[in-house]
Automatic annotation (TrEMBL), chain A:
Subunit comment: Heterotetramer of 2 PreA and 2 PreT subunits.
Function: Involved in pyrimidine base degradation. Catalyzes physiologically the reduction of uracil to 5,6-dihydrouracil (DHU) by using NADH as a specific cosubstrate. It also catalyzes the reverse reaction and the reduction of thymine to 5,6-dihydrothymine (DHT).
Source organism (scientific name): Hymenobacter jejuensis
GO cellular component term of the entry, any: cytoplasm
Region (Disordered): 439-465
Catalytic activity from the UniProt record: 5,6-dihydrothymine + NAD(+) = thymine + NADH + H(+); 5,6-dihydrouracil + NAD(+) = uracil + NADH + H(+)
Ranges for domain 4Fe-4S ferredoxin-type: 332-361, 366-396
Keyword Glycoprotein (UniProt): no
Stored Pfam families: DHO_dh (PF01180), Fer4_21 (PF14697)
InterPro entries documented for this protein: 4Fe4S_Fe-S-bd, 4Fe4S_Fe_S_CS, Aldolase_TIM, Dihydroorotate_DH_cat
Name by which UniProt lists this protein: dihydrouracil dehydrogenase (NAD(+))
Superkingdom per UniProt: Bacteria
Keyword line: Iron, Iron-sulfur, Metal-binding, Oxidoreductase
Name of the coding gene: preA
TrEMBL record, chain B:
Superkingdom as given in the UniProt entry: Bacteria
Protein name, UniProt field: 4Fe-4S ferredoxin-type domain-containing protein
Domain called 4Fe-4S ferredoxin-type: residue spans: 27-60
GO MF term set: iron-sulfur cluster binding; oxidoreductase activity
Stored InterPro entries: 4Fe4S_Fe-S-bd, DPD_II, FAD/NAD-bd_sf, FAD/NAD-binding_dom, Helical_ferredxn
């Protein structure tokens, strides 16, 4: 049985799954319910000077039949009285002494920071998370992402906090910045014990086509909000990798962003996170999803022979290189497995219109054929193919050569200006442009409808109201 | 063994004849449309006789453009809603869907099609209108799928169109023949009303064209005449006892059923003669009307039946029993039907042969003959120069629908000998184009 427990920068937790600071951690009632369900920790909904929230405050990106593939909010920090929150933190710790309760904080002045850090420590918090991420509402008041985007200011505030902090301090970073490692380094310089990322991404999830207003709509108007949910995982993973690989950051990382199941969590961990935080998935499906997450993680660790979480933290990092370090001599070519093909021909259109015209249609069969000499091995066809393992990318180089862009640059075997004779292009085969016009002749699209001719459109269509 | 109690009210009738392709709700349509792969050169389009751009309309549904989806459907097929419900989609579009090759349920194209078209019908959204009047007139005989489709297309091209229909309602067998669990009368008639409102052709009901004089009048008043007359009554079997009470033709039985619902009486034990789709329908319908025993009697083996497998499965699912390799020799009874005398058969080298001495009587109190529809050869003989083939089908050019009398065009059952609604809709559109070409080139 693998050991799921962690000691994150001094904060102990029975498993690496924490609820992120958000509506699910708004009250003691919810946090106790979550611990009961199996969550290892909770970062309390951010505490600060009282605010007022609007309604509505959430927007969703629905994709085809999937709801909330992306999610955004224009909510502020906790709008409950500070005293209530402190009392409930104390109560939670009484019932769950071994679970992690982390107080998320956001205030302005040095005095306020000192005061609130002491308050939450007295209430029994196991750690503190500084919210430098909120991309709406608070930043306009000089807090949240306004701080996260100014490494110097961030560092100063971390220093203020460290002056009085007796428990571990995590700095939560905003992704609304071009280089995430800058605020991460500033956090370290300020003396923080750990970082967590990402907070939400400034966004507009959609626009109401009838009301001409962005979602969510408040009395006919809207504003940009913070984006999260499954759709942001790729951005989070990249930022986590950046921080984990930066020699000047070297802090424990709590990974956040798009985690909905054990696989997402493992990905965060393999790129360097040693605890993970979940918000949208818990808001979407409730606390019960933790059962699938812990069970999946446990199964994975058992199968891979990992005994503790730390056996896997950052395991994928050595394989994440800079582009210039990748092997240019490695070649793959698409290969269609005819027995699996269902003849949708999505690969054909994708390669024809979106790649390198390396797939041909054949008379008498709907199974397309790869034109090997044109295939650059881009992978597009295998990504669009709806049948599992129907298009595989097969290695076609000899496996003996290895050459990187970096090596070529150093050996000066590549052009660096247009005036270089060698800059003549890579001789990709491209059909004559006029050939594109001939296509419809041997295809039947868009069907017999066109052959038969369409009826005249309404001549006197009136604007129905 | 009866699964259904005889319905005594309209509600009970609708319960027994519940729609096998019920209407989708918005969520169902969203989920189902999400699955479509948007295949290139999609096989579903090719399998549709009217060539509806299926991936296009499915994607339109998925993006919330249901009106656009209906437009895509109607551009190709004026019986868009009816076809979505009555087409044998299992062997047409849905049968061709690439998901079948992955052993995944194909996209429910038919139901999605009806989802989109019903929404515009109900909202009465104007999608089409007549073309600019070109001063020419065409008479259409028969307001079935062929006649109405032809009328729509001709109106779109600017012709003045008068439709002459023998009965009191439009849509032909769609409302008089198709099984009630496939489509309801209200639904059919709503689509008819919608089309007529869009295109503005005129229909004269209860106006059979029966004589040479009737035809002559049309020939004088119109520039071309379209024959969308379908087929006729059930073929006679020419068996002794066929005249007995409760021995009825399937077409006539179903017509009664479609018009009078639960007020149609059915026997306790019914024998349906035949192995085609109409036989399957008649058997299913008898069972749903509360018959205790329904036997489908066919002169060859099960595999040789003309009906689609799914139609036979549907009949079996409501308790219909098969009796194979038997040929009826007499309808027995005393005034009323009391049974059918059969003789066993064997198929030798593809030929049905009787087994001498194997006669037996299967008792029943109703016989439904689903043994094919007669052709209207007598009526057709009034049209000078009009050729019909040896099976009584109107001979017409495949690309124009023009008959051997250049003024007459034909399509639908009358020409193809009996197929589906979708074939009539597709062929009538071709014929309308043929009429247009004919009338614009002879001038
Ligand atoms: C029992 C049964 C079940 C069927 N089930 C299905 C099904 O589930 N799905 C499917 O797709 N197809 C089904 N079909 C077939 C389908 O109904 C026909 O293929 C289709 O209706 C043919 O259309 P049509 O316009 O050619 O002829 P019809 O629908 O027969 O229309 C002909 C019209 O012309 C009128 N008419 C005829 N002669 C004259 C005249 N001299 N003067 C004026 N009017 C005249 C008739 O009253 C009728 O309204 C079924 C057929 C039958 C018999
Ligand atoms: C494979 C790929 C290659 C791209 N290459 C370029 C590029 O060379 N130059 C550029 O300006 N944008 C490039 N883009 C970005 C696109 O132009 C576009 O800005 C981006 O994909 C967002 O648009 P979309 O998601 O709506 O397609 C590329 C995008 C993709 C997917
Ligand atoms: S995308 Fe896959 S299934 Fe579709 S045609 Fe190509 S290889 Fe076949
Ligand atoms: S890998 Fe790329 S270039 Fe090769 S066939 Fe597939 S889509 Fe075309
Ligand atoms: S074949 Fe099926 S998946 Fe492909 S376009 Fe048609 S309905 Fe969609």
């Amino acid at each position: 049985m693998p050991d799921l427990s962690i000691n994150f920068a001094g904060i102990k937790s029975p498993n690496p799954f924490w609820l992120a600071s958000a509506p699910p951690t708004n009250s003691g009632y919810q946090v106790m319910k979550a611990f009961d369900a199996g969550w290892g920790g909770a970062v309390w909904k951010t505490l600060g000077v009282p605010v007022v929230n609007v309604s509505s405050r959430y927007g969703s990106v629905n994709y085809r039949d999937k709801r909330m593939i992306g999610f955004n909010n224009i909510e502020l920090i906790s709008d409950r009285p500070l005293a209530d929150n402190l009392r409930e933190i104390e109560e939670v710790k009484k019932y769950f002494p071994n679970h992690a309760v982390i107080a998320s904080l956001m205030v302005q002045s040095r005095a306020e920071w000192h005061q609130i850090v002491r308050d939450v420590t007295n209430a029994g918090s196991d750690g503190i998370e500084l919210n430098f991420g909120c991309p709406h509402g608070m930043c306009e008041r000089g807090m949240g992402s306004a701080v996260g985007q100014e490494p110097e200011v961030l560092r100063t505030i971390v220093e203020w906090v460290m002056e009085v902090a007796q428990i571990p301090v995590i700095v939560k970073l905003t992704p609304n910045i071009s280089d995430i490692t800058e605020p991460a380094r500033a956090a370290r310089l300020g003396g923080a014990d750990a970082i967590s990322l990402i907070n939400t991404i400034q966004s507009i999830v959609g626009v109401d086509l009838d009301k001409f207003a962005p979602y969510p709509i408040v009395d006919g108007k809207g504003t940009n909000g913070g984006y999260c949910g499954p759709a942001v995982k790729p951005i989070a993973l990249n930022m986590i990798k950046n921080c984990a690989q930066d020699p000047e950051v070297r802090l424990p990382i709590s990974g956040i962003g798009g985690i909905e199941n054990w696989r997402d969590a493992v990905e965060h961990i393999l790129l360097g996170a040693s605890s993970v935080q979940v918000c949208t998935a818990a808001m979407h499906f409730g606390f019960g999803i933790i059962r699938e997450m812990t069970a999946g993680l446990e199964q994975y660790m058992t199968e891979k022979g990992f005994h503790t979480i730390y056996d896997m933290v950052g395991k994928a990092l050595p394989n994440v290189l800079h582009w210039e370090e990748l092997n240019l001599k490695y070649k793959v070519t698409a290969n269609i497995h005819e027995d699996k093909c269902i003849g949708c021909q999505l690969c054909y259109t994708a390669c024809e219109d979106g790649a390198h015209q390396a797939i041909a249609l054949r008379e008498g069969t709907r199974v397309p054929e790869i034109i090997e000499e044109n295939c650059v091995g881009c992978n597009l066809c295998s990504l669009v193919c709806p049948v599992e393992n129907c298009i595989t990318m097969e290695r076609t180089d000899s496996g003996t050569e290895h050459l990187t862009w970096k090596e070529r640059t150093e050996a000066e075997t590549i052009p660096t200006t247009f005036n270089d004779d060698r800059a003549g292009g890579l001789h990709h085969w491209v059909p004559e442009p006029t050939a594109a016009l001939g296509k419809e002749k041997h295809k039947t699209l868009p069907g017999k409808a066109r052959q038969l001719g369409n009826p005249a459109p309404a001549t006197d269509v009136v604007n129905e109201s | 063994m009866a699964e259904y109690l005889p319905p005594t009210t309209e509600q009970e009738f609708h319960a027994n004849f519940a729609q096998i392709k019920p209407r989708m709700n918005n969520t169902e349509a969203l989920y189902e449309s999400s699955r479509c792969l948007f295949c290139f050169d999609a096989p579903c389009i090719k399998a549709c006789p009217t060539g509806i751009d299926i991936p296009q309309f499915i994607r339109q549904i998925n993006t919330g453009n249901v009106t656009g989806a209906a437009l895509t459907i109607y551009e190709a097929n004026y019986f868009g809603n009816a076809c979505g419900k009555v087409c044998p989609t299992e062997v047409l579009c849905e049968g061709a869907c690439v998901y079948n090759l992955q052993d995944v349920k194909p996209i429910e194209i038919g139901r999605l099609q009806s989802f989109a078209t019903r929404q515009v019908i109900e909202s009465d959204r104007k999608l089409f209108g007549p073309g600019l009047t070109n001063g020419r007139k065409v008479a259409v005989i028969g307001a079935g799928p062929a006649g109405i489709s032809c009328a729509c297309e001709l109106r779109a091209l600017g012709y003045e169109v008068d439709v002459f229909e023998a009965r009191s309602q439009p849509s032909g067998l769609t409302v008089y023949g198709v099984a009630p669990y496939k489509i309801t009368n209200e639904e059919v008639l709503a689509e008819m009303a919608y089309l007529q409102a869009q295109f503005g052709y005129r229909v004269q009901y209860n106006s059979p064209i029966t004589t040479r004089e009737d035809l002559q009048a049309l020939e004088e008043a119109y520039d071309a005449i379209f024959l969308g007359i379908g087929l006729g009554k059930t073929n006679a079997l020419l068996l002794p006892g066929e005249e007995r009470e409760n021995c009825v033709g399937a077409v006539e039985f179903i017509e009664q059923l479609r018009q009078h619902h639960h007020r149609v009486a059915v026997g306790r034990k019914v024998i349906v003669l035949g192995g085609g789709n109409t036989a399957m329908d008649a058997a299913s319908e008898s069972s749903r009307l509360g018959a205790e025993n329904v036997i489908l009697a066919y002169r060859r083996g099960k595999e040789e039946m003309g009906a689609y497998d799914f139609e036979y499965d549907l009949a079996k699912s409501v308790g219909v029993k098969g009796l194979f390799n038997v040929a009826p020799v007499e309808i027995v009874g005393n005034g009323k039907v009391e049974g059918v005398k059969f003789i066993r058969t064997a198929t030798v080298d593809g030929q049905v042969q009787i087994v001498p001495g194997s006669e037996f009587v299967e008792p029943c109190d109703m016989v439904i003959k689903a043994t094919g529809q007669a052709k209207q050869t007598h009526f057709l003989s009034y049209i000078p120069g009009l050729q019909v083939d040896s099976k009584g089908r109107v001979v017409a050019d495949a690309y124009t629908g023009q008959t051997t009398n250049p003024k007459y065009f034909a399509s639908g059952d009358a020409r193809n000998g009996g197929a589906e609604v979708v074939n009539a809709a597709a062929e009538a559109k071709v014929a309308a184009r043929g009429i247009h070409t004919y009338l614009t080139s002879t001038n």
